[in-house]
Every structure is written in C-alpha cells, then in structure tokens.
Write a sequence for this structure.
C-alpha cells in the first residue's frame, strides 16, 4: 500500500519512487543507499574527506552542487591514494550500475548518501562560494555595488554643497533659512501626494481562489531563511515552514547560519529536520550581512523559484501556490512577487501598533498601487518570491547593501522586469520596545541612503533605463522618504521658532507669515496622507482605536526623524554594518 502511494506521488509529481521515498522521511537516507549499494554489488562509503575530492578547481565543485537533475558524482582519492568514483545515484542510475560488466569499474565505484557527498562538496567549495558571495556583483556590475558607497564625483559634490551651505549660513542666513524651508516642504508635499494618490486610486484586489496546481510540471521551490542569533525562534520557524503546501520532493528549505553562531546551530541540530530541510553554514567573512549569507547559499539551491523568509515569519500555507499561479499567468518579465507582511502583535503597545499601521499602509496600499501602475517596487526584506533566472540576471543580492530588498527593486526595474504583490500574507511580530524599533529603522534608512547613492552614480543612465514616471517615483520613494524624515525635525524646530516669535510680539516680515502657513500646511498634509492611506487599507476590525494612531503620529514621525539622523551618522561611520534586530517567540494577542 505504501509503495503504491509513493508510486502514485512519483507519477503525479513527475519524480521517481526513490525521490518520493526519501522526501517522505519514512526511510533513513544512509541506510537506503547502503542497502541499494549491496543490491547492485558495489561498495558503500560513509565518510568523505573534502580534501580528497578531485576537481579541476573549486568553481567546478560549485557547478556540481548546482546540478539540476539532482545527481551528485565526484572523483575521490581513497585512503590508499587510489582514484575512486563517488556517486549518489538516482533511480535509473541503479539499473545502469547493476548492468555494468566492468568489475574493475565496480570495484572503484563507491555509492554514497547524497547528503554526505553534498556536505563534502560544500566544504570543498567554501572559498569559491565566499568569493562569489562577496564579489560576484562587484565583478559583474561594479556600478551597482555598494562596496564603495560614494563615488569620487559624488563626494566632491557633497563637499561643495556642504561648503556652500556653511558660507551661506555665515553671509546670508535668511536666504538659507528660506531655501531649507522650500526644500523641506517640496519633499513633504511630494511624499504626501504619492500617498494620497495611492489611497485614492488603490486598485481593488479580487480574491482569486488559490490551489496547488495538479500538474507534474510543478517546479522545485527553494526557500532561503537567513538566521543569526535566532535560537529562540527556530522551533516556531520550522513549524511555520512545515505548513507550506508544496510537494516535499520538490521543496528545499535552506537554513542559512553564520558558522560562528553556535547557539542557533545548536538549536537547529537538536531538532529532527525533515529531509527537505538543510543547514547551510556561512564561513565568517566581511561584510557580515544578510544579503552576503543569501548570496552564499543561492548556488547550493536548484529551484526555478526562490523565496526569502525571515526567522520570525509565519507565511500563509498557500503562499507558494499563489506565487506559482501568478508566475504562470504572467510572462517572463514578471520577476518578483512580494507577499504582504502583517503584524500580529499590534495590540501590544503603541510602538507595535504604529509599526503595524505603517506596514498595512505599505504592503496593502502603496505597493499594490505601484505594482498596478507598473512602477518600481521597493521590495520588503522578506517574502520575496523570485524567478531564479531574473534574480541571477540582475546579479543577485548586493552583500554590501543593508537594504538589499530596495536595491533589488531598483535593479530589476532598470533591467525591464516587473514586480507585483500577492494576497496570501506573511505574519510576523513588530518590535515592542524603542531600542529594537530604533535599531531596525536606522538600518532601513541607512540602506535607502546607500541605494540612492549607488543608483545615482550615473543619473543619465538611470533616467534612460527607467520610464520618466518610474524615475520620478523612484526619487520620491528612495530619497524623498529619507530626506523628508531627516528634515521633519528641522521643520518642526523652524515652525516652533516662528511660533515663538509670533507669541512674543515680534513683527513678522513679508516672508515669515507665508513660510509659517506653508510649513503648517505641509506638516498637516504629511500626517493626513499617512493616516488616509493606512485607514483605507485597514479592515473594519482593525480600525478600532484609530484615534490613538492619530494622536501618536506626530510623536512617531519625530522618532522616524531621529532614526534618520542616526542612520546618516552610521552611514558615514560604518556603512556596511548590519544592525541585528532581535526576535522572540510569537505571542497571540
């Protein structure tokens, strides 16, 4: 009965009985391959020394790891120094071995468990994988790498601008005051208009039924999860990933850990992992960032579709199925699908509440409108579903950019690819304390600054590769949001100064009254557009207590402004430092 069930799954998934048997977890891999080796009359090798593998170079070893048919083989020097051949056969391979009459060949052939050979190949490829993760994008598209954040002409321009501002402050402070006002107001109004348009013209998202396609053409799906100091949430993560609806014989889940993160590795090793789950250890090297770890792991996967999750994520079980459905309906120009992120602990306190409100406005409002308008999509840092071919075409992740998601969104748009959004959400918890929230937001702001500086190295090329509308929206989204946050505190200070002058009986000049009115209008429009976009996308049940969000918005924006200034300092001091956001077990609220 069991054999019939597995055979049916193999026929249905267009795999083999062996693949389905191993993926089911009902048989231990090493025992299966050892028994099969005895059946076909060849030896079985259990332990493999990576240093004895024979390859032309490390790059050839990496290519073997990326074999799409799943068959691993390698030449190997045994303990006596004799050349042997290691192979982890697929189902047809057993028949080929059994039919061979060459006794010498059978003597030199050794069957190995796929996981053992794969582990040895990965160990042998460490240096090549690290080199590619660190310098792959830099070598292929140096103009898109954030290793050198500021190019010489940009440094010169920023220096000249700073000098001009200091000279103006000394000679014509009034003129500088007016110019800063208009600069601040222009960015505030631009961001406000963008939010307001998104709220007013938000497309109606029809809830299409989602089901796993009943087809043998279902592709291999690779799930990448970068973990660092996440021992506490590993059990919940594996439970959440285990609920994903996808054939286990065509699913590979890579838990990507830093090699010196002993606590997380120990937490993973204490659990009984499903055969489709693998622990990938990234050797310590600079930069210590999430995108570097992802770039290290990508060559180890074979999925046509790739999705990223964070350690605290609980994706909807049908999210992979919806992504495949959308990819099949669209052409190859659709490169990425962003699943919405939903905050599950909004009721914890006001920080979590505001964070959740902001996420709702972004993932249920702004991003769907941008996708519907075919404009550049600033991706979220998790739940991005990629066509592997498109991801590799743009150079993969930049290991030096601390918001690799925003950078990838711009690079995909520059190459003519589209990004859209999904309906099936990923739930996660928001930060509940100021320190954690601040640390996360500083990293985001710093990464957006990096992204803008990188893609504005060649402004003409950027404008040529993007449509005029996309170019304008990109400026508003990337630099506009950052500058408006940076200048918000200054704007409040200037408004307070003008108000104090007015209250003290000082007579206003011709320019002061209009400036004060303009400042107040821009602040009001900024708050109003932020609240409008969030209100439009909230469910009726989530609108309860909305007045608290309204009252806390000015405080929250001051918090954002403080984080933006800290990000600017951090960009100058340590541009590639990844500020780790600690996570804890989810709690139901």
């Amino acid at each position: 009965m069991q054999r019939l069930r597995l055979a049916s799954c193999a026929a249905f998934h267009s795999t083999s009985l062996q693949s389905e048997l191993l993926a089911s977890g009902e048989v231990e891999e090493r025992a299966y391959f050892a028994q099969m080796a005895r059946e076909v009359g060849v030896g079985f090798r259990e332990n493999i020394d990576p240093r004895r593998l024979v390859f032309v170079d490390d790059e050839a070893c990496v290519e073997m790891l990326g074999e799409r048919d799943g068959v691993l083989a390698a030449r190997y020097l045994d303990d006596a120094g004799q050349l042997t051949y290691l192979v982890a056969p697929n189902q047809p391979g057993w028949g080929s071995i059994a039919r061979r009459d060459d006794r010498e060949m059978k003597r030199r052939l050794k069957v190995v468990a796929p996981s053992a050979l794969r582990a040895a190949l990965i160990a042998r490829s460490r240096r090549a994988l690290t080199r590619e993760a660190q310098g792959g994008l830099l070598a292929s598209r140096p103009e898109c790498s954030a290793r050198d954040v500021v190019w010489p002409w940009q440094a010169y321009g920023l220096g000249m601008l700073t000098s001009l501002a200091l000279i103006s402050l000394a000679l014509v402070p009034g003129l500088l005051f007016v110019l800063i006002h208009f600069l601040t107001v222009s960015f505030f109004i631009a961001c406000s208009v963008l939010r307001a348009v998104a709220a007013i013209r938000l497309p109606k998202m029809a809830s299409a039924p989602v089901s796993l396609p009943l087809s043998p053409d279902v592709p291999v799906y690779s799930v990448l999860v970068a973990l660092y100091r996440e021992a506490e949430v590993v059990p919940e993560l594996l439970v959440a990933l285990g609920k994903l609806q996808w054939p286990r014989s065509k699913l590979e889940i890579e838990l990507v850990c830093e090699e010196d993160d002993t606590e997380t590795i120990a937490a993973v090793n204490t659990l009984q992992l499903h055969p489709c789950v693998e622990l990938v250890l990234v050797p310590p090297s600079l930069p210590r960032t999430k995108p570097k770890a992802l770039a290290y792991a990508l060559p180890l996967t074979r999925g046509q579709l790739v999705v990223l999750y964070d350690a605290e994520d609980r994706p909807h079980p049908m999210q992979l199925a919806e992504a495949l459905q959308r990819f099949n309906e669209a052409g190859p120009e659709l490169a990425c699908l962003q699943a919405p992120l939903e905050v599950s602990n909004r009721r914890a306190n006001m920080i979590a509440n505001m964070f959740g409100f902001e996420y709702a406005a972004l993932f249920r409002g702004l991003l769907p409108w941008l996708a519907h308008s075919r404009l550049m999509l600033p991706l979220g840092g998790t739940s991005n579903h990629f066509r592997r071919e498109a991801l590799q075409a743009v150079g993969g992740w930049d290991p030096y950019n601390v918001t690799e998601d925003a950078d990838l969104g711009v690079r995909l748009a520059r190459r003519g690819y589209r990004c859209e959004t999904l309906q099936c959400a990923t739930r996660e918890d928001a930060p509940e304390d100021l320190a954690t929230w601040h640390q996360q937001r500083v990293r985001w702001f710093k990464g957006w600054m990096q992204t803008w500086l990188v893609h504005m190295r060649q402004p003409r090329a950027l404008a040529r590769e993007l449509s005029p509308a996309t170019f304008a929206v990109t400026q508003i989204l990337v630099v506009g949001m950052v500058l408006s946050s940076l200048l918000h505190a200054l704007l409040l200070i200037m408004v307070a100064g003008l108000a104090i002058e007015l209250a003290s009986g000082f007579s206003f000049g011709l320019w002061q009254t209009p400036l004060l009115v303009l400042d107040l209008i821009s602040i009001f429009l900024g708050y109003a557009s932020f609240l409008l976009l969030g209100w439009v996308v909230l469910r009726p049940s989530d609108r309860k207590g909305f007045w608290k969000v309204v009252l806390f918005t000015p405080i929250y924006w001051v918090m954002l402004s403080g984080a933006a200034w800290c990000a600017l300092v951090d960009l100058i001091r340590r541009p590639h430092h990844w500020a780790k956001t600690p996570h804890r077990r989810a709690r139901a609220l």
Notes: DSSP finds 22 helices and 15 strands in the chain. The first helix runs from residue 2 to 13. The radius of gyration is 27 Å. The chain has a mean pLDDT of 89.
